[in-house]
Design brief:
This protein has four helices and no strands. It is mainly alpha-helical. It starts with 21 loop residues before the first helix and ends in an 18-residue tail after the last helix.
């Protein structure tokens, strides 16, 4: 996301500069957003990315359980810490998660408009 002209030009990268100095280049390249707006954008991006990754991991796990017949606990990917994996399995098996999942599935069924405009909000799309 940092768009420096030459590698190593951003302060805060690698050995040179203090930890926070590289952020001024990062914020500068978020298309005129203030630091607050940029920080919010970054946090939202990280939240969406984590949610997407966890959903993808859950889908992969379902397929592996069906294909191999092994219990989910035995199919922990090497990049997950065992404690984190156990907590994820507990969460995915909890009533709270199952309820959220069911509500989300029902809401997606109600949605009838195919969104083909990419990353634009519906409000930003002009109707032809």
């Amino acid at each position: 996301m940092v768009d420096c002209i030459k590698e190593g030009e951003c302060e805060g990268e690698g050995e040179g500069g203090s930890e926070g100095e590289g952020h001024k280049y990062f914020y500068k390249n978020l298309r005129g957003q203030s630091r607050f707006q940029a920080t919010y954008s970054i946090k939202e991006h990280v939240k969406r990315s984590c949610k997407r990754v966890m959903n993808e991991e859950k889908d992969r796990l379902k397929k592996k359980v069906i294909d191999t017949g092994l219990p989910a606990k035995d199919l922990r990917p090497s990049y997950f810490h065992p404690i984190l994996w156990d907590e994820l399995l507990k969460f995915w098996d909890s009533e709270v998660h199952k309820h959220r999942s069911d509500v989300g599935a029902k809401n997606r069924e109600k949605f009838q408009t195919l969104h083909i405009a990419g990353a634009k909000a519906f409000e930003a799309i002009e109707m032809i």
